Amino acid sequence: MMTAPVLLWLRRDLRLSDHPALTAALESGRPVIPVYVLDGEDPGEAARPTMRSLGGAARWWLHGSLAALAAALAARGSRLILRRGPVVRALADLAAETGADTVVWTRHAGADESPLAEALGRAGLTARRFRGTLLFEPEEVRTKQGQPFRVFTPFWKHLQTLDPPPRPLPAPERLPAPETWPASDALDDWSLRPTRPDWAGGLREVWTPGEAAAHARLSAFLEEDAAGYADGRDRLAAEATSRLSPHLRFGEISPRALWHAVRDRPHDRGAAAFLREVGWREFCHHLLHQAPDMADRPLQAAFARFPWRDDPEGLAAWRAGRTGYPVVDAGMRQLWTTGWMHNRARMIVGSFLVKDLLVDWRAGERWFWDTLVDACPSNNPAGWQWVGGCGADAAPYFRVFNPVLQGERFDPAGDYVRAWVPELARLPDRWLHRPWEAESAVLRAAGVRLGETYPHPLVDHKAARDRALAALAEIKGAA
Ligand code: FAD
């Protein structure tokens, strides 16, 4: 009699190493059928009550990641089966076609997956869920009072007191194949990559999706950059951070692999600081577990009453990198071109949108969701709520970033602005972050005509700051 295969349902865990669900499927001794379901909406979010379409940049990444995974599976005698959703129907159909009676997958924070497991049960499949997205599962991390943490530093300190996460599992050399393979969609037919127009040239130049590239990036970072990370991570022009975020977002590398790669090295301050940032990722995921609607609802309830402005022109200028504040524009153009933005720049542009323009943080979150290759259901809303002052452990709303001083501090030689705002490249350092204060002769010599070659500032920062503080006072009932 034919042995019933196991369906390995892949979502945001597009790797073969350190994959507990895959290991369990192999341990069953049965053939394994790896499957990815495109759910029309965000495939990674199939279990969320309000599903979210993947953004354009993330779709581009997904194509590359699935292609890499399919090649890695083929090298191990297996295949990646591609199907369209809805998920329960796609998996039930596949089970009916192949005789599979079990489906295994990796748990994600953010959604209660029990209804999904029950629906699969009704379709005749045994559903088994495994860890693999996080260092620690949200239920395992509690304060002394038994509550989830709402503040990062005690959360991170607490994680250090727990037993370390298990060492990463090796990738299998082969996966047992079923007697016959079920049909699969062709990846190209999913049109995940843009064609008309093809705006992904900048992404192709910078990124290589896939598990092998993720591990290569980690090794290069640990060898070359980790030592300087603690001091360099805030410098906008220095390529001092790991750029592992899209690889982590799509699960091409596990956080446990990062944890142990760092801990296996002799202690160095830079690598420890890097691991702390991975701790932030963990924190954001645990927050999403508590508040699955974090992209839509402020964690601090008072902010539901915040008097956001409707400013379509301001929002459009911000998106296009034409606010007249060079460091803000540099960040927004880096994002548009490469699908990634430096963390410091994310904080600066975020503060500018929600405080200087008084535009709802959700509009920024949505734009990032569409344009970031690492657009993450946890880190993105948590980052925006932090910036907006309405999240757990957020920067207080009254702390308003000054885009000129931020630029001068974190891009002192102006390399970042010159790279992304070339029309200002010939301005002397002294004026680069504040071109409107330069004498007309200086502007002329640098070929800058404000209002023509580069915009006037969209708002006066000082007046905008006062306006933001007045808006805050309104919701605090102090105005
Ligand atoms: P590194 O400095 O090398 O850090 C290593 C890893 O730690 C990152 O890859 C990431 O997984 C995690 N990490 C680092 N900083 C943070 C942080 N502040 N919060 C959560 N995790 C962190 N990160 C995303 O992965 N996806 C997002 O959609 C996202 N949106 C953001 C939006 C805003 C408004 C802000 C302020 C931050 C956002 N971040 C997001 C966090 C952070 O900016 C990126 O993770 C980081 O810039 C990625 O670059 P890196 O991989 O070189 O980071």
From TrEMBL:
GO molecular function annotation: deoxyribodipyrimidine photo-lyase activity; DNA binding; FAD binding
- Its EC number is 4.1.99.3
Q: Which InterPro entries match?
A: Crypto/Photolyase_FAD-like_sf, Crypto/Photolyase_N_sf, Cryptochr/Photolyase_FAD-bd, Cryptochrome/DNA_photolyase_1, DNA_photolyase_1_CS_C, DNA_photolyase_N, Rossmann-like_a/b/a_fold
The family database entries (Gene3D superfamilies) matched by this protein are listed as: 1.25.40.80, DNA Cyclobutane Dipyrimidine Photolyase, subunit A, domain 3, HUPs
Highest taxon above the source species: Bacteria
Look at the named UniProt entry and state the broad enzyme category this protein falls under: lyase
Q: PROSITE patterns from the xrefs?
A: DNA_PHOTOLYASES_1_1, PHR_CRY_ALPHA_BETA
Biological-process GO terms, alphabetical: photoreactive repair; response to light stimulus
Provide the binding site for FAD.
Answer: 229, 241-245, 274
Q: Ranges for the Photolyase/cryptochrome alpha/beta domain? A: 4-135
Catalyses which reaction(s): cyclobutadipyrimidine (in DNA) = 2 pyrimidine residues (in DNA)
Cofactor(s) recorded for this entry are: FAD; (6R)-5,10-methylene-5,6,7,8-tetrahydrofolate
Give the record's keywords alphabetically: Chromophore, FAD, Flavoprotein, Lyase
**Annotated site (Electron transfer via tryptophanyl radical), which positions?**
308, 361, 384
Q: How is the cofactor bound?
A: Binds 1 FAD per subunit.
Q: Give the record's family classification.
A: Belongs to the DNA photolyase family.
The name on file for this protein is Deoxyribodipyrimidine photo-lyase
Q: Which lineage ranks, top first, belong to the organism behind this chain?
A: Bacteria, Pseudomonadati, Pseudomonadota, Alphaproteobacteria, Rhodospirillales
